[in-house]
C-alpha cells in the first residue's frame, strides 16, 4: 500500500529540515540519485519549504522515486538518531514491499492482502471488474459505489489507493458530512490538486451577469488545475449519503461530473476521474449528459461465505511456519474453520466501530497472527488471545498519554497544522503532534493561507525534524483533521467543558479566518457574550453561519457536562430552510429596480394582495371570471430576451411574498440549469418538488423524502430505458420495428408514471396544509426556471409537463405554476392557453437607479446613459462598468455618452441592444493599456479558445503583430489571460467570457469583417492540420462561421465531435445553424428553419415528427410532413410518412409509398434508408396479412446489409425474419433463419457485442433453443436489461414453475437466491419454506439492486432443469422490452367516423 497523505506530509517536513536546508538544493537532490532530467523539471527556489514540497510532489509519481527519497532520509545521520528515523525506516520498508508487488506478475486488481498483511480487501469481485474497466476505458469518467450503510463502500478507498500506486494515478479523498458545503469541498479539492505555493482564489461572483455561475467557475477551476498537473488525480468524495438533502454539495458533485466530462477529450492521460462512495442513485441523478460515462457498483455486507473464500485462498497460498509449500486441502479447511469462527466472534463483539470495520480488523489480525506463527505454535490459541482479549487474558496496549492529549487538542478544530498544534499550557508548539497523530488524521492538503505568518518563535528550541514551520514556510501550511470516528471517541472521552475550553483556547491561532465552528464552540464554552463579528441569533443566521453552528453543536453535545446547547434538530431545520431560500437570495443580491407592474401581475396570479389599486381591480375582475367559468388557473409563462431578468423577477416575487405574508404558502423554485435536474427527465423535477416541500412541512418530511427517492429511482430506470430506445434507433433495421414500438411504449409508461408520482406528492401537500373542508387553502406556487430547451413544437418533455400540471391541478386546485423560458408554444398536449408576462426593458427611472447602484455617481450622467442605452439590464451593467473605467472626469464621461448610438425606439430591439452593447464593450476594450493585447482581445473574439500557439499561428498576422518566438507569444498570452474579460479554458488556454462574447461576436463580424474572416480562415487551416475530434470540431465551427456551403462542410464531419459543438449554433448564420442542429440534435425557431437547406430542414423536421408519433399525435405529425415538398431522395422523412399513413389507417397507400421510396433510395445509393423502408414495408405487409411479401422484404434487407458488411444491420433484419417465421405456422425457413442468426451472433467478438447490447440480448433470447450457450455469453458480456421490470417477472415465474414441477431443485435454487442477496430475513421461529411469487420478486429486485442478478441468471443456466423452464425464463428476461409484438395500425376510417386523435394526458 502507498504511504498515506499524512505520512507524506511528515516526509515533506523531514526533507525540508534534513535534506534541503541549504542555499543550494540541487546538490543534495543530485546526491540522492535522481536523474538530471528529474532535477531539471523541479521548480526549485531558495526556500527550503517550497523545495521540499516540489521534490516530494514529483517523487510521488513513481515507486522508484519514492524509494530514492526515503533511502536518503533513512541514511541521514541527523534524522536516524531521532525517533523519526525509526518511522522513516518503517515507511521505507512499506515502499520496498510496494516495489516488490509492482514487479511481481500478480494481477493488482485481484489483490486481497494489502500493506504486507496489515490491511485486507475481501471479495467484491464486481467492484474489481468495474475498477479494471474504469482504469482502462478513458470514456468512463465517474465511478459510483452504492450500498447500504456499513456495507464497505468507504472501504473501497483502500483498494483504490493500492491500485493508484501500481496504475499511475493519485486518489485524493474528501469525506462529506451533513454540514459540508460546496465552497468547502471545492477548497479541499483545490488544495489537493493545485500547486501548494499558489494562493487559492476564493469564490467570487461574475461581474456582469447573475452570480449563479460562481460555483460552476470554481469547479471548472479545480478540474483545470488537476488536468494541468503532471499526474492523474482521482477525486474521491466519500460518505455522500451523509449529506443533507438540501445541501449545495449535490450541485457541486453534478458540476464536477460535467466538468470532468467536458475536459476528458482534451488531455485523457491527466484529466481527473470522479469517484463517489455512498452515492445512491435514488438520492440524486447525476447529469444526464454523462449517463454513458458512469461505472456503477453496489457494495454489500460481507458474509461467512465471503470470508471462507478469502481464507481458503489465503491459507492455500501461505506456507505454514517452517514449511516451503502451502498446506494440503484438508489442513486448509481446518484453518478456514478456525479463522472463520474467531473472526465472526470478534465481529459480533460490542464496540464503537461498524460491523464491516470490526470484520476487517479481525481478518487483518488473523493474517498478521498466521504470518508471525513460530513452528509448532497453536494457531487457534494465539488467534483467540489476539482477537478476543477479554477471554484470552490479554488486551490492547493502553494509548500513550501524549497521543491522547494531542487528540484532545485537535478534536474541536475543523483543520489544523500539526506543526503548530499546542497542548494546553504550552507556550509554543513542539511539533510532536505530527508523529503522534499521523495515523489518526486525514490530510486536507497544503494551502497558501493568504499570507498568514507562523507563530512567533514556533519551533525555535525544538529538535530538527520535529519543529514547527520555519520562516520561509509562512506561505505554506499543512492541514490535517482528525478522522470522524477518532474525533467522536475523543470528544466523548474529554473530562468536561473545562478541558474542551482549554484545548480550544490553546489553539485559537489555528481557527480559520472569519466565522467557523471553532469560534461558535469557544463562545459557548467560555460563556462570553457574542462579539460583533460572531453570528447573530439562530433565526437571523445565513447558510454558512447555521452550518457552523450545527457543526459546533454536534461536537459539543458529545462532551460530558456541556449544557445549554441549541437543539441540533432545530438548527438543522433552520439550515434546511436557509438553503431552500439561498438560490433566490443569490439572484437578488444585487440591486433590484423597477418591475412593479410585473410583480403585481405575479401577485394577482398567485392570489396575493397587489400593491397598486389598479392591480387590485384587475385581480378582482380576473378572480370573478374564474369563479363564473369554474376554469382552473393555467400556467403562467415569463418570457423575454436573454439577460432581461426573468429569473431575478421570479426570485424577487417569491422572497417579497414570503416576507410580506407571514402565514406563508408552500412554494418550490426549480432551476433546470442545476445539474441534478434533467429537463429530459421530469421525474427529477417531481423529486425536487418533494424535497423542497419536505423542508416546509417537517411533520411530513419522511413521507416526502421517501417520495423523492422513489422519483429519483424512477428517473434512473427511465434513463436506462430511454438509452435502450435510443440504441434501437441507431440501426436502420431496428428503428422501424423495435425502435418505434419501444419509443411509443416508453413515452406512455413514463408519462403515466410521472402523473402517478406527482399525484402522490400533491396528496401529501393537501394533508400537510390541513385546510378545512370547503376552504380554498393556501396557493401552491411552483416556479420552474430555464425551461427554454423543452419549449418547441412536438417536445415530449412539454407533453409530459402538461400531464404533470394537469395531475397537480386536479389534486391541488390552487396550484400556481410559473415557468421562465420562451414565449408559449403550441403543442398537441396543451390543455389550456397559458397566461404570459412578456418581460421588456426597465423603465427610465429604474434604469437610472440601476446605473446609480452600479457605481455611476453623477445623476446627470446616469440619466443621459439611461436615455442612450435603454432599459436592458445587461446593457446598463456594461454602461456602468464603462463609466467606472472612464473615471469621474466630466469630459470623459460626456464623451462616453456622446459616443453611444442614439436609440431607435421603433427598430427591432435585439439589434438595437446589440449595437449599444457593442459600443459599450468597445469602450471597455479601450482601457486595455497594451495595444497589442487589445488587438488580440478584439480579434480573439472569433476563437472559442485562445492559446499561445493560436496567438502565433492564427491571431498574429490578422492583428498585424510579429511574433518571432514562443516566449513572446507566452508573454502576450500571460497579459491577455489576466484580463477580466477572459476566463480559463484549460491548461494554457483562455476564452472570452461567454456573456460578453455572446454580445460582441455578431457586432465584431459586422464592424471588423476583414479581421474576423482572416482569423476564421487561418483557424480552419490550423485545425485542419491536426488530428482528434476536438480539432475537427473547431475546423467545422470556423468553416460554418465563414458561411461555407454546408454540403461541403458535411464531408469533413466525423462521428464523436457532436459534444464539442453543442450551443455553437448561436454563433452562426441561420443556414449554418440549421446544418449544425440537423446533425447534433436540437430544435430551432421557425424563422431560422425557413433559411435552412432542404437536407437540414428534413433532418430537424424528422426528429420533430418522431417525437410527435411517439406521443401518439399522428395528425400533428402529418401536418408537419405536408411541408417543404418535394423531399430529397435520401430524406429521413420518407419512412416517417409511411409510418404516419399506416397509423392513420391508410395501409395500402403506406405500402405503395414505401415501395416507391425504396426504389428512389436504391437509385440514390441510400442503403441505410433502403433498409429502414424494407423493414417498415415488411412490418406493414405482415399486419395486412401478407407474410410472404413481408419475408421477401426482410430477405432483401438481409442481403443488402450483408453485402455492405453491416453485421448488426444484418442481424436486425435476420431477427425480424426469425420472429416473422415464428409467428407464421409451418414456415419451412424457420430453422434455417434461426441457424443463420445464431451463427452470426457466435462469430461476433465480445467487444462488438457490447456495442449493441439491446439487439444482442434479443437475438440471444431468440436463438436459445439452437444455441443455449449464447445466453451465458450474453449475460457475461452485456448482462440483463436493468430498467425493465419484465426481467424480474420472467425470472420469478420461471423459478416458481421449475420449483413447483421439480421439488428436488428447491434446495439448489434457494442456495442461488441466498448467494445473490444473503440469507433472507424472516420472523423468529418461522421455518424456511418455499418462497411465494411475491417474495421471489422481492428477492430478485434486491439482487438487481445489489448488482448480482446477472450472476444469479448465469447460475440458473447450469441447474439440471429437465423442464427447460429456467432456460426459457432467462431467455425471456434477456429479451424483456423487445418482445417484437407487431404494432397495430389503425383500420381504414369509415365514412361515418374517422379515428379520433389522442389529445393530452387524458387520451387513451
Would you write up a description of this structure?
The protein has 1404 residues and is mostly helical. The chain has 61 helices and 16 strands. Among the domains are: 5-103; 124-299, Rossmann fold (3-Layer(aba) Sandwich), CATH 3.40.50.300; 307-348 and 357-385; 401-454 and 464-581, no CATH class; 665-829, no CATH class; 1026-1110, no CATH class. Helix 31 links the parallel strand 12 and strand 13. It is globular and about 95 Å long. The chain starts with a helix and ends in a 30-residue tail after the last helix. This is Orc1-like AAA ATPase domain-containing protein. Residues 624-797 form the Orc1-like AAA ATPase domain. Residues 449-470 have a biased composition (Low complexity). It comes from Streptomyces purpureus.
Write the layout of secondary structure elements.
Layout: H1 5-19, H2 26-31, H3 36-40, H4 48-59, H5 63-74, H6 77-80, H7 83-103, E1 113-114, E2 119-120, H8 125-136, E3 142-147, H9 156-167, E4 169-175, H10 182-193, H11 213-228, E5 232-238, H12 249-263, E6 273-277, E7 294-299, H13 304-317, H14 329-347, H15 355-372, H16 379-387, H17 389-392, H18 401-410, H19 433-437, E8 441-447, E9 477-482, H20 484-493, H21 497-506, H22 517-526, H23 543-556, H24 568-587, H25 596-606, H26 613-629, E10 636-639, H27 646-660, E11 667-671, H28 682-696, H29 701-729, H30 735-769, E12 780-785, H31 796-811, E13 815-821, E14 835-838, H32 844-853, H33 859-869, H34 873-886, H35 890-898, H36 909-925, H37 931-939, H38 948-955, H39 966-977, E15 982-986, E16 989-992, H40 994-1007, H41 1009-1024, H42 1029-1041, H43 1046-1050, H44 1070-1080, H45 1086-1089, H46 1094-1110, H47 1114-1121, H48 1133-1143, H49 1147-1164, H50 1167-1183, H51 1187-1204, H52 1207-1223, H53 1230-1243, H54 1246-1249, H55 1253-1262, H56 1269-1277, H57 1285-1301, H58 1306-1317, H59 1333-1346, H60 1349-1357, H61 1365-1374
Parallel strand pairs: 3-6, 3-7, 4-5, 5-6, 10-13, 10-14, 11-12, 12-13
Antiparallel strand pairs: 1-2, 8-9, 15-16
Helix pairs in contact: 1-4, 1-5, 5-7, 10-11, 10-12, 11-12, 13-14, 14-15, 14-16, 15-16, 18-20, 21-22, 22-23, 23-24, 24-27, 25-26, 25-27, 28-29, 28-30, 29-30, 30-31, 32-33, 32-34, 33-34, 34-36, 36-40, 37-39, 38-39, 38-41, 40-41, 41-42, 44-46, 46-47, 47-48, 48-49, 48-50, 49-50, 50-51, 51-52, 52-53, ...
Domain Orc1-like AAA ATPase: 624-797
Pfam families: AAA_16 (PF13191)
Biased composition (Low complexity): 449-470
Amino acid at each position: 500500500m502507498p504511504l498515506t497523505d499524512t505520512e507524506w506530509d511528515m516526509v515533506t517536513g523531514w526533507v525540508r529540515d534534513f535534506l534541503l536546508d541549504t542555499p543550494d538544493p540541487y546538490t543534495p537532490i543530485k546526491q540522492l540519485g535522481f536523474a538530471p532530467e528529474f532535477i531539471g523539471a523541479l521548480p526549485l527556489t531558495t526556500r527550503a519549504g517550497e523545495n521540499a514540497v516540489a521534490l516530494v510532489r514529483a517523487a510521488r509519481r513513481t515507486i522508484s522515486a519514492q524509494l530514492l527519497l526515503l533511502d536518503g532520509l533513512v541514511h541521514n545521520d541527523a534524522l536516524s538518531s531521532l525517533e523519526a528515523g525509526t518511522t522513516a525506516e518503517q515507511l521505507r520498508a512499506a515502499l520496498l514491499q510496494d516495489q516488490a508487488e509492482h514487479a511481481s506478475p500478480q494481477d493488482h486488481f485481484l489483490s486481497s492482502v494489502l500493506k504486507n498483511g496489515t490491511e485486507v480487501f475481501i471479495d467484491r469481485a464486481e467492484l474489481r471488474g468495474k475498477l479494471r474497466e474504469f482504469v482502462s476505458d478513458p470514456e468512463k469518467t465517474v465511478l459510483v459505489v452504492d450500498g447500504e450503510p456499513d456495507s464497505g463502500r468507504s472501504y473501497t478507498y483502500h483498494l483504490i489507493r493500492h491500485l493508484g500506486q501500481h496504475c499511475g494515478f493519485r486518489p485524493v479523498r474528501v469525506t462529506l458530512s451533513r454540514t459540508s458545503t460546496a465552497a468547502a469541498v471545492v477548497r479541499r479539492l483545490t488544495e489537493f490538486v493545485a500547486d501548494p505555493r499558489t494562493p487559492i482564489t476564493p469564490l467570487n461572483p461574475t461581474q456582469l451577469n447573475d452570480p449563479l455561475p460562481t460555483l460552476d467557475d470554481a469547479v471548472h477551476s479545480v478540474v483545470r488545475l488537476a488536468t494541468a498537473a503532471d499526474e492523474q488525480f482521482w477525486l474521491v468524495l466519500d460518505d455522500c449519503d451523509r449529506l443533507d438533502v438540501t445541501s449545495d454539495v449535490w450541485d457541486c458533485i453534478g458540476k464536477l461530473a460535467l466538468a470532468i466530462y467536458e475536459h476528458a477529450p482534451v488531455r485523457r492521460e491527466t484529466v481527473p476521474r470522479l469517484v463517489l462512495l455512498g452515492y445512491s442513485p435514488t438520492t440524486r441523478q447525476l447529469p444526464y449528459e454523462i449517463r454513458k460515462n458512469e461505472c456503477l457498483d453496489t457494495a454489500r455486507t460481507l458474509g461467512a461465505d465471503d470470508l471462507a473464500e478469502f481464507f481458503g485462498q489465503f491459507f492455500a497460498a501461505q506456507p505454514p511456519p517452517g514449511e516451503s509449500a502451502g498446506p494440503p486441502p484438508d489442513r486448509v479447511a481446518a484453518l478456514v474453520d478456525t479463522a472463520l469462527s474467531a473472526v465472526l466472534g470478534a465481529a459480533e463483539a460490542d464496540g464503537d466501530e461498524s460491523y464491516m470495520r470490526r470484520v476487517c480488523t479481525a481478518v487483518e489480525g488473523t493474517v498478521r497472527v498466521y504470518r508471525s506463527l513460530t513452528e509448532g505454535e497453536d494457531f487457534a490459541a494465539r488467534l483467540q488471545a489476539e482477537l478476543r482479549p477479554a477471554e484470552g487474558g490479554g488486551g490492547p496496549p493502553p494509548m500513550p498519554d501524549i497521543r491522547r492529549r494531542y487528540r484532545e487538542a485537535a478534536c474541536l478544530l475543523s483543520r489544523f497544522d500539526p506543526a503548530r498544534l499546542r497542548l494546553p499550557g504550552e507556550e509554543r508548539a513542539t511539533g510532536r503532534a505530527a508523529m503522534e497523530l499521523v495515523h489518526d488524521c486525514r490530510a486536507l492538503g497544503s494551502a497558501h493561507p493568504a499570507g498568514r505568518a507562523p507563530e512567533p518563535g514556533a519551533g525555535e528550541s525544538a529538535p530538527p525534524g520535529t519543529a514547527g514551520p520555519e520562516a520561509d514556510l509562512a506561505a505554506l501550511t499543512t492541514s490535517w483533521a482528525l478522522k470522524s470516528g477518532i474525533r467522536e471517541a475523543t470528544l466523548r472521552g474529554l473530562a468536561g467543558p473545562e478541558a474542551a475550553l482549554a484545548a480550544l483556547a490553546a489553539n485559537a491561532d489555528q481557527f480559520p479566518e472569519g466565522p467557523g465552528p471553532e469560534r461558535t464552540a469557544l463562545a459557548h464554552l467560555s460563556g462570553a457574550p457574542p462579539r460583533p463579528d460572531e453570528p447573530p441569533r439562530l433565526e437571523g443566521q445565513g447558510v454558512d453561519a447555521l452550518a457552523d453552528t450545527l457543526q459546533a453543536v454536534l461536537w459539543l453535545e458529545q462532551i460530558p457536562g456541556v449544557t445549554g446547547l441549541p437543539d441540533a434538530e432545530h438548527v438543522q431545520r433552520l439550515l434546511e430552510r436557509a438553503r431552500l431560500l439561498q438560490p433566490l437570495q443569490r439572484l437578488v443580491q444585487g440591486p433590484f429596480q423597477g418591475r412593479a407592474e410585473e410583480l403585481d401581475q405575479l401577485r394577482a396570479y398567485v392570489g396575493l394582495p397587489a400593491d397598486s389599486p389598479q392591480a387590485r381591480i384587475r385581480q378582482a375582475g380576473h378572480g370573478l371570471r374564474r369563479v363564473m367559468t369554474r376554469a382552473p388557473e393555467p400556467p403562467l409563462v415569463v418570457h423575454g430576451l436573454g439577460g432581461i431578468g426573468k429569473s431575478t423577477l421570479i426570485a424577487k416575487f417569491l422572497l417579497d411574498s414570503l416576507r410580506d405574508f407571514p402565514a406563508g404558502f408552500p412554494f418550490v423554485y426549480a432551476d433546470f440549469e442545476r445539474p441534478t435536474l434533467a429537463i429530459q427527465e421530469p421525474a427529477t423535477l417531481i423529486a425536487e418538488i418533494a424535497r423542497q416541500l419536505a423542508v416546509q412541512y417537517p411533520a411530513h418530511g419522511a413521507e416526502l423524502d421517501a417520495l423523492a427517492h422513489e422519483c429519483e429511482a424512477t428517473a434512473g430506470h427511465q434513463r436506462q430505458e430511454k438509452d435502450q430506445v435510443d440504441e434501437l434507433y441507431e440501426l436502420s433495421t431496428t428503428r422501424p420495428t423495435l425502435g418505434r414500438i419501444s419509443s411509443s411504449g416508453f413515452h406512455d409508461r413514463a408519462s403515466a408514471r410521472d402523473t402517478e408520482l406527482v399525484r402522490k406528492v400533491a396528496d401529501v401537500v393537501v394533508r400537510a396544509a390541513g385546510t378545512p373542508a370547503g376552504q380554498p387553502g393556501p396557493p401552491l406556487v411552483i416556479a420552474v426556471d430555464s425551461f427554454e430547451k423543452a419549449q418547441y413544437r412536438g417536445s415530449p418533455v412539454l407533453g409530459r409537463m402538461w400531464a404533470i400540471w394537469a395531475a397537480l391541478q386536479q389534486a391541488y386546485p390552487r396550484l400556481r405554476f410559473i415557468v421562465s423560458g420562451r414565449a408559449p408554444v403550441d403543442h398537441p398536449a396543451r390543455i389550456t392557453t397559458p397566461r404570459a408576462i412578456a418581460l421588456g426593458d426597465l423603465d427610465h427611472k429604474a434604469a437610472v437607479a440601476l446605473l446609480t447602484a452600479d457605481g455611476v455617481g453623477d445623476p446627470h450622467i446616469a440619466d443621459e446613459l439611461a436615455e442612450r442605452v435603454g432599459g436592458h439590464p445587461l446593457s446598463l451593467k456594461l454602461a456602468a462598468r464603462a463609466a467606472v473605467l472612464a473615471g469621474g472626469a466630466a469630459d470623459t464621461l460626456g464623451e462616453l455618452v456622446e459616443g453611444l448610438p442614439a436609440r431607435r425606439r421603433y427598430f427591432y430591439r435585439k439589434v438595437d441592444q446589440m449595437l449599444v452593447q457593442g459600443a459599450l464593450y468597445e469602450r471597455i476594450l479601450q482601457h486595455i493599456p497594451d495595444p497589442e493585447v487589445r488587438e488580440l482581445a478584439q480579434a480573439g473574439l472569433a476563437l472559442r479558445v485562445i492559446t499561445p500557439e493560436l496567438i502565433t499561428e492564427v491571431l498574429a498576422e490578422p492583428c498585424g503583430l510579429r511574433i518571432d518566438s514562443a516566449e513572446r507569444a507566452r508573454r502576450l498570452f500571460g497579459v491577455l489571460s489576466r484580463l477580466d474579460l477572459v476566463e480559463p479554458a484549460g491548461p494554457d488556454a483562455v476564452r472570452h467570457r461567454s456573456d460578453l462574447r455572446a454580445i460582441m461576436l455578431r457586432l465584431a463580424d459586422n464592424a471588423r469583417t476583414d479581421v474576423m474572416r482572416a482569423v476564421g480562415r487561418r483557424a480552419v487551416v490550423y485545425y485542419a492540420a491536426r488530428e482528434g475530434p476536438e480539432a475537427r470540431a473547431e475546423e467545422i465551427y470556423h468553416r460554418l462561421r465563414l458561411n461555407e456551403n454546408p454540403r461541403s462542410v458535411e464531408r469533413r464531419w466525423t462521428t464523436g465531435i457532436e459534444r464539442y459543438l453543442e450551443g455553437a449554433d448561436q454563433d452562426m448564420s441561420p443556414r449554418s445553424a440549421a446544418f449544425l442542429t440537423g446533425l447534433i440534435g436540437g430544435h430551432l425557431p421557425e424563422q431560422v428553419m425557413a433559411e435552412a437547406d432542404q437536407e437540414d430542414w428534413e433532418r430537424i423536421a424528422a426528429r420533430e415528427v418522431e417525437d410527435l408519433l411517439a406521443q401518439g399525435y399522428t395528425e400533428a405529425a402529418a401536418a408537419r410532413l405536408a411541408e417543404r415538398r418535394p423531399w430529397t431522395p435520401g430524406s429521413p422523412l420518407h419512412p416517417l410518412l409511411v409510418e404516419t399513413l399506416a397509423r392513420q389507417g391508410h395501409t395500402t397507400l403506406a405500402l405503395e409509398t414505401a415501395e416507391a421510396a425504396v426504389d428512389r433510395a436504391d437509385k440514390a445509393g441510400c442503403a441505410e434508408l433502403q433498409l429502414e423502408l424494407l423493414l417498415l414495408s415488411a412490418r406493414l405487409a405482415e399486419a395486412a396479412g401478407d407474410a410472404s411479401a413481408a419475408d421477401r422484404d426482410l430477405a432483401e434487407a438481409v442481403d443488402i446489409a450483408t453485402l455492405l458488411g453491416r453485421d448488426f444491420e444484418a442481424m436486425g433484419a435476420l431477427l425480424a425474419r426469425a420472429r416473422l417465421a415464428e409467428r407464421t405456422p409451418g414456415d419451412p425457413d424457420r430453422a434455417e433463419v434461426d441457424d443463420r442468426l445464431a451463427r452470426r451472433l457466435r462469430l461476433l467478438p465480445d467487444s462488438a457485442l457490447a456495442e449493441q447490447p439491446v439487439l444482442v440480448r434479443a437475438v440471444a433470447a431468440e436463438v436459445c433453443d439452437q444455441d443455449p450457450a449464447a445466453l451465458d455469453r450474453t449475460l457475461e458480456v452485456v448482462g440483463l436489461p436493468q430498467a425493465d421490470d419484465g426481467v424480474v417477472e420472467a425470472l420469478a415465474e420461471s423459478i416458481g414453475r421449475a420449483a413447483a414441477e421439480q421439488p428436488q431443485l428447491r434446495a439448489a435454487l434457494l442456495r442461488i437466491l441466498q448467494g445473490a442477496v444473503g440469507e433472507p430475513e424472516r420472523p423468529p421461529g418461522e421455518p424456511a419454506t418455499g418462497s411465494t411469487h411475491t417474495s421471489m420478486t422481492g428477492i430478485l429486485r434486491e439482487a438487481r439492486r445489489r448488482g448480482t442478478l446477472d450472476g444469479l441468471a448465469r447460475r440458473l443456466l447450469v441447474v439440471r432443469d429437465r423442464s427447460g423452464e429456467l432456460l426459457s425464463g432467462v431467455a425471456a428476461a434477456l429479451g424483456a422490452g423487445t418482445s417484437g409484438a407487431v404494432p397495430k395500425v389503425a383500420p381504414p376510417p369509415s365514412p361515418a367516423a374517422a379515428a379520433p386523435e389522442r389529445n393530452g394526458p387524458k387520451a387513451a
